[in-house]
Design goal:
heterodimer; A: alpha/beta; fumarase; 6 strands; 20% helix; globular; B: 4-stranded mixed β-sheet; 4-stranded mixed β-sheet; 10 strands; 38% helix; 25% strand
Chain lengths: 164, 273
């Protein structure tokens, strides 16, 4: 994601590369770890977080159903993560003013993807590996390799939002 | 007295778990197909297409329609001439747990809401009713929490105007906005008590969504779709696919109104034993 700053709100793109799943409890732990000065389970600098808690992985499949969860629940944790180098987020729905401002300040980007379409989105995941917090079950952090994952730029690096 | 073994109930619930989570309801599919035809917002149309594709992929590959396989809500009608050999609630929870494990669904249930901890598959929510006859009817509604979080209750004064009630319902949808996977299905419970209004608001989501049953439902649907929220909140005239209202007698001092919002993936299944 080198050309992240050129993305514009409303633009549709296809992402290929590495993303990390993290939702509510994982966010709480990540922020707790940062505040306690501990090491994070993955390099936050330049990373993209996907707000997702997939189903169990069926036999013979890479991942189960894996659509986005509501982003606004992560709002209180997001500005600190952006300050520490988080580059992108994928979820569904609107974000708070504070998140929008932080995205602009730290030159990040917020994407949305097809909400409630977890079966469809599983087709774009090539690999999935649990890397942290496995005790959280579906809320564990997974490292995903995705190919042509469909995204819509919802808030761009200039703080422009498709939600107005 | 007809006898039914608890294990039969467990097996039936396991099958319902599969059906509800993999196969989108035919009336929900019809509502989506109709919306696809009439939506003229380019992006809105594209999103409805993705929702329909998703349903087809889920059905074909035995994948959950949505990764949020919900808090399972089970409505049971037990005929008064049936005797169950075993524990009904335990049998249902066993079926939920067994089904969710077998079909690789998600463990989303936290045993202690304050202490949290590792998510499990059960318990589910169970509503039991005793009816005439010697059958047992079981209905499963796996309720996703993105939309459950946006549900609202208001205890109106008994002198409240119907326009205030309408505004509350429309505002509830507006406040859900783009967050809870629109286009929505709106269940409304009017009357009863605070708790009962909530139950009927959810239960009415089990009725056919392709048919609006009253003028009030039609008016509300039209007004909600004027909001312009649209599929995924990115614009269009398809903000809700149906508004369903269930009323119940209430007290002279009150007028409870509960709005239960469902995402577009309104899933349920029913079996009669």
């Amino acid at each position: 994601m080198k050309n992240i700053n050129t993305l514009k709100a409303g633009q549709e793109i296809f992402l290929s590369g590495t993303i990390y799943t993290a939702r509510d409890q994982a966010h709480k732990r990540l922020v707790g770890a940062i505040k306690a000065g501990k090491r994070l389970p993955f390099e936050l600098k330049g990373a993209i977080i996907y707000y997702c808690g997939p189903t169990q992985t069926p036999k013979g499949k890479v991942i189960g159903s894996c659509g986005p969860t509501t982003s606004s629940r992560m709002d209180e944790f997001t500005p600190l993560l952006l300050r520490r180098g988080l580059r992108g987020m994928i979820g569904k729905g609107g974000r708070s003013r504070a998140v929008k401002d932080a995205i602009k300040k730290y030159k990040g980007v917020y994407f949305v993807t097809y909400a409630g379409c977890g079966a469809l989105l599983s087709k774009y995941v090539l690999r999935a590996q649990t890397i942290a917090y496995s005790d959280l079950g579906p809320e564990a952090i997974l490292k995903l390799e995705v190919k042509d994952f469909p995204l819509i730029v919802a808030i761009d690096a200039n703080g422009r939002s498709i939600y107005g | 007295m007809r006898k039914i073994k608890a294990i039969k109930i467990t097996q039936a619930v396991m099958e319902l778990v599969k059906r509800a989570n993999f196969y989108l309801r035919s009336d929900v599919l019809s509502a989506l197909r109709r919306a696809y035809k009439i939506e003229d917002n380019r992006r809105g149309k594209k999103i409805i297409k993705a929702i329909l594709d998703n349903a087809a992929i889920a059905r074909k590959n035995n994948l959950a329609i949505c990764q949020d396989t919900g808090m399972p809500v089970v409505f049971v009608q037990v005929g008064r001439d049936v005797r169950i050999n075993g524990d009904l609630k335990a049998a249902i929870n066993k079926g939920i747990e067994g089904g969710y494990k077998k079909y690789y669904l998600r463990s989303s249930i936290i045993r202690d809401p304050l202490l949290r901890g590792k998510p499990e598959f059960s318990p589910c929510i169970i509503h039991i009713d005793i009816v005439r006859g010697d059958k047992i009817k079981i209905t499963l509604l796996p309720k996703g929490f993105g939309c459950e979080n946006k549900s609202q209750l208001k205890m109106f004064k008994p002198t409240a105007d119907i326009e205030e009630v309408k505004k509350f319902i429309i505002d509830a949808v507006k406040s859900a906005g783009p967050d809870a996977c629109p286009p929505y299905f709106i269940g409304v419970g009017i009357g009863g008590t605070a708790d009962y209004a909530g139950i009927i608001a959810k239960q009415v989501l089990l009725t056919k969504v392709t048919k609006q049953n009253s003028r009030l439902e039609e008016v509300l649907l039209r007004q909600i779709n004027k909001s312009g929220i649209g599929p995924m909140g990115l614009g269009g005239k398809t903000t809700a696919l149906a508004v369903k209202i269930q009323k119940y007698p209430t007290h002279i001092a009150g007028l409870p109104v509960s709005v239960n919002i469902s995402c577009h993936a309104l899933r349920s299944g029913q079996v009669v034993l």
